[in-house]
Every structure is written in structure tokens, then in C-alpha cells.
Amino acid sequence: MHPYPSKKKDKTVPSTNTVGPKVEPGARANTGAGIGQEPWQTRIKQLAKNIPGPVIGLVVICIAMSLLSPYFLTPNNLINVLSQVSYIGMMAVGAALVIILGGIDLSVGSTMALSFMATAFLYKEIGLPFWLAMVCGLILGAFIGLVNGLLVTFGHVQPFIATLATMFAGAGLALYITNGNPVIGFPEWFLGLSRTRLLGIPLQVYLMLLVFVLAALWLRYRPSGRQLYAIGGNEEVARLSGISVRLAQARVYVIAGFLAALAGLAVGARLDSAQPTAGSASDLLSVIAAVVIGGASLSGGVGSMFSTFIGLLIIGVLNNGLTLLNVSPNLQPVVIGVVIVLAVISDRGNLPLKRT
Amino acid sequence: MSILSTGPVPLNGGSLTEEPKALRGIGLTKQYGGNTVLHGVDITLRAGTVLGFIGENGAGKSTLSSILAGIKSPDAGEMFLNGLPYAPTGPASALNSGVAIIHQEIKMVPRLSVAENMFLGRWPKKRGRVDTASMAEQAEAALAVLGAKINPRRPVAGLSMAAQQEIEIAKAILRDPSYVIFDEPSASLGQEETEKVLDQIRVLRDRGAGVIYISHRLDEISAIADEILCLRDGHRAMAWDTGDVSKDQMIRAMVGREFVYAHEAPQPAEPDVVLEVKNLARHGAFSDISFSVRKGEILGMSGLVGAGRTEVVRTLAGADRADAGTIVVDGKVVKISNVASAIRQGIFMVPEDRKGQGLNLGRSGGENMVLPWEKTLTPSGFVSSRTVKRVERAQAQELDIRGNLDIPVLFLSGGNQQKVLLAKWLVRKPKVLILDEPTRGVDVGAKAAIYEIVRKLAADGVAIIVVSSELEEVLGLSHRVLVMAGGQQRGILSRDEALPDRVMELSVP
Fold it and tell me: Which value does ipTM take for this structure?
């Protein structure tokens, strides 16, 4: 449970400063004055302490994979990892925002499927121009998010239950639109999202990175983004600080729905088809796993885009590496399960050890 | 006594067998983080008597009764139960020794039946299954002792507070305790219901139990107590071996004769009224509150816990909504519907619960300070960590906060946390600053510093409302004191009128 969103969370904790009731005036000076005189071993140790656990985990997994498989550390394979997780990543950004706020969104997977099915239906059956159908799909995603948001804020339905309900409804509608049939055949330019490469990297990877960067900047610099930590940390404190908690909550669910629709576009472009059964339960679980492995707490107030990205890479690398090693796909989720538990336990152990 | 004597100890020979049945504490002391709340207090609760227990807020009543009931352990001192050493390791162990406590706030599982609530955790079993029949029977018997007409098979949900209180007492009877502590049982009860509880306490006493009865309502104490003990600032202030003590005498003992102002008189306030409140009411919390605060004036709000002071100021700060009444700021009627609208009017509140309502404990000092102001902190609307640091440094200097503010405020001392909370609401200059228990749980040094800040703000023309349960704090800081009791405004006293006895008289319902 990191109380800080950023990677520099521990840098400023001087070792002399304990939890005791007295914080001496000198404690502050120690931070600055002490560093110059420290031997380099201590500085390295200090530096190592500041590296977040998930990053260490990712490096360890990468080293292990590259030793076990000669194909792992090739540029093509690494790009492959990124493009395989790009749609999960877009949804993970939304999920991370919701989780930082102290909520949960179970509906992202089915929203992804439904909104792209709607796009495909509007394009193929109704005959709308594809760009317009696309915009409609994105709006639909945002609308489902709005429903979630209103249920949670004004309906006082617990987020888990509200989004469970919309998850079911969304999954059903996705099947209903075309009677369960997939839709295929989309414009060339749209498929380029997956096929066109810039510097050898597919466009959808750039799209995902863009989403991560924008969200990170929002969380860090804009009041409306920074609020999420305050609300997730303690809703009452946020309310008594004059923050409109419900508006902030509703907004985040809308963003999560929109990003799920965006992820739907990425999947559609990759498969060149709209599958009503896309966005399965395992997608949803990967999304939440990425956020949790990154160190976010389901009780809210903690998490960051950087660590969510690391969590995403851990999942991507594990799936890719285990496939390369010919591990049965049925066993791969077992490994992910173990990693989640390890991540959460090591994270919890961190705080008291470092701080006191 | 000869060592050769092998026969029974002669009855008149020693006090060993003649030790009267009593729960005794000798030299009980308790500290919280360097703050001593109980200074070597002696207490004797005789079986078959009711000991009335009085004292101001924070005098140490709850701490002492928690120690007797095994909820807290003393830092020094010893206890004896019927002459034998008594050192409970927890409430369960105290209960096994025959000492029960009935809390002010009753906690029951609403969906479970009355009987099941009474047997929670120690269900009677028959062949491995919970014996519901015997449970209901025993519960009914215990309720009958009290003369309570409650069906033990019905769920607790929907029962009145008074009925729940009865269940709680019946639950204590089930364990047949020899000593029972009632921690302000009447706080949430009406007149008639209180009478009933007092009758039930008499039943317990007549069955031979020793009862401690804590209450702020001195009439009740006179009515029920056989002996009275008064605590003040953690010391044993006065004890009477009779319940026949006048209200006046009790108040004097609670307040103390040697009461002195450690405070200097505040600077005179300016004439213009900043905030005026007319007939403010909130259903179920308070009604008909009217007062005004002038520029540079400090208005104290005094009253016992639960008098409705916090509820009034929360309404002014937009945390709760008023049901009736008008609020006038600078001569204009304003509508305060949420915290943001109160902030727009320049009414800021430093809430009473620093950890639950005031600060995000996991965030740094600076991040806490900027929280209400992020939108207007920079012209561009972007908040960078440099901006946050700038505010943090400026406020730390202004309020002389000496502590590392870059770490989560969780790791700061109580005094520094309180200063950070104060700093949060002084990033912008308030028109009206509400301070709810501004020095709760802070050490003496930080207390003095906070008083200094408050006086300086008033001198700068800020209208200030101070809510405090510490009489000395309210009377020492304020120009005028508004006294509340039971959700009602009992009077506004000038600094000269606001003597402790007078304030206490108005505070006691």
C-alpha cells in the first residue's frame, strides 16, 4: 500500500525519522545534508530501495525468460508482447483510475465487446460511414460508463454490484445485436491501426502509450485528476475540502467506459472482425491483475499509471514467455495467480519495514 | 497470628477474611503518548452500592472505567477484587471475574434476534447445535428481572434505543456480574426511559451488585448514588460517602476552585458583523440557534459532548444541510448547500476528527494543504509538485511547523498534524474560521502555539468560532461564549460573565 503515486515515494523518507511523536527540527536537515557524506554503498542501497517492487519483478522475469528461451529477447518478440497487451492496457488505464478512486469496474470487458459490435452493426447493417459508426461506438462506451457512474453516485449501489449488472447487460446486448454472429470486413485504413507500423511498432501500441501518458499527466497535474487520490484515500476528507466527490466519481466511470470502447477498436482492427464474445472474463481479470500487480490497493487512494504499466508488462511478458516455453495455456493463469499474491504480499511488507 | 495455629483464622483476628466485598483500584495511572490522563487515582466500589461518577469532559472518567472493565490496562497502580489481586487481560477476562461494562454506544447485530445478541459468542449448545430454545428462555428470564417487555425471539432491528439499552443490561445480568459499570446510559434516552434504567440499576444493586453510574446529568446522580466520586484532570477531585450532595457542590468540584486563566485577554473585536446566524435548525440535531460573530472576534462554543455544537458548525461549513434558518455573511443572506459553497463565502472549517475528516494520512503535508485550493492555485490550472512544495514551505514558515512535511502526515506528531490541518485552511485567508476541538490530542507546547496562531488570526480581522470541550480553552480564548445543551442554545456569555461555574450550570441539562 504505497501512499504515494509516484516512483519517488521513498526518496524523501530520512532514516532518522521514525513514527514517534517527536519530529525533531533536525530531521529535515538530515535529508539534505546527509547525502553528500554517505559512502557509495549506502547510496546504492538507497537507490535500490527506491526502485518499486514491480519493476524488480519485471526485470527478474525478463532475465529468466531470456535465459530459458533464445527467442524471448528479440525485437520482434518484444514488440509482439506490447501489441498483444495494448487493448488490455487501454482498459487497465480506466480500471486504475477507478481503483485509485476506491471503486471497481467489472463491466469493461463486456463494454469493449458491445461498443465494437455496435460500431460494426451501424457500419454493416445500417450503412453509416465507418468513422461515424466508430464515434457512435465510443459514445456508447462512455454512456455505459455514465450508467455505472450514476448508479454508484446517485443510486448508492456498490460499485461491484452496479458494474456487475452492467457487465451482464452489456454481454447480453453484444450477442443480441447480431444474434450472436461475428461481423467481418472493415475499411483498410481502420485495419491499419493494427497493421501499419511506425519504426516497426504497430499504431495501436502508440495509441495505448498515448492513453497512459495522458492519464499519468492528468493524475499528476490537473486538480480533477489529483482529486482521485484524495477521494480514494478518504472520501470524507475530500468532501470537507470542498471537492464534489460524486462528480469526480461519475467522470471516472465515464472515462473507463470510453477507454473500454477504444480498446474494442484495437481488438477489432487486429482481428478484422467484431466478436460478440470478445472481452471475456479473462480479459477483465487481466485488466484488474495489471492494476493490482502494479501495487494499487482495492481500498483506494493508491496506484499510478507507471506502476499499472509495469503490471501490464509483467502479465504480457509472462503470457508470452510461458507460451514460448511451451507451457500449457491452461497453466498460465496459475502462474499469474501466484504472481498477484507475491506482488501484494511483498508490497504490504514494504511499508512498515522501510518506514520505521 | 502464630505460625503454629492450624485452626481456622479467628473471625475477629484479622482483616483477611473480613475484607468487605469491593472492587478497588489503588494509584491507577494511565498515559497516552506522554499525556497523563489519570494520575494515581484511588477508587472503591462496594458491593450493593451505587457509586455516582462525575467530572468534566476529559476528566478521565472513561479511562478509569475502561481500566476497571479490562478494556485498557493501567500504566501504574493495582486493583483488587474482593480482596484478591485483579488484573484483567481484556474485557472477556474482566467479565469472567464478574466485572461488566455497559457502553454509552450500544453495538448490536440488527438482523439477529434479541436472545442471540445477548448470547453472541457463547451460544448455549445441545448436541453440537445452538440450543435456541434454552437461549430464548434464559434471555426471557433476564429481561423479566428488569421488568422489560421484549420478545427475545424478535430481531433487534426496529427496537428503540431504550429497548436496546435494556437488552444490554439484561445481557450483563445473564453473566451475573458482581460489579457493573454504566457509561452514560442516559445520554441517548429521554426522561421516562432514564427513570426506567435507574429502576433497573436499583434492581441490580438490591441483588448485591456494585454499580458505577457515569452521567453528566447531576439530578440522576443525586437520585441514584449512594456515594459520589468526582474526577478532574485525571485526579481524584472530591469524594462523598453519601448521594445527598447539592448540584452546586458537584459543579464546584467538577470545575475546581483553583481554576485560573493561563490566557491573556484577546484584543477587542472590530464593530462590523461578519457572520450572522438566525434561527438555524437541523432536524434531530439542534434548533433555534442564533448568534453573530464580528470581525476579529473569537466566539467560543461550549457544552457537553453531544450538546450539538459540532452539528451547528458543520452546518455552517456546508458539511451538513440546515433545515431552517438564515445565514448572513457580510450583510448578505447566503445559501450554503455544500462545502464548496461555504468556502466560496470564506467560511472554512477545521474539523474535529483530524484523522478521519481533516487529513489524508497517506499524503504529504503539502499535498494535504493544497487539496481545497488546487483549482485556483495556478493561473493555468496545472498543479506541479513544485507548486505544492512552494505552498508547503510558505505555510510551514508561517505556522512554524517543524517536522518533515515531505513524508506522509501519518508519521507526524499529533501537534504537527494539527498544524498541517490548520495550515490547509489558511492557504487562503478565511473570513470566518471554524475550529472544532483545535487542540484535541496535542501536547502542551503545540497547544500554546495553536492558541498563538488563533489570536494572531483574530487580530488580523478573521472572525473565529472555537468549539471545544475543554472549558479552560474556550473561556481563555474567547471574547464571548455560546453554551449549548441538548441541541439548544442555552445562552451567550460575555468574557466577564463566562465563569466556569456559570458555563457548567448552563451546560448541564
Answer: 0.74
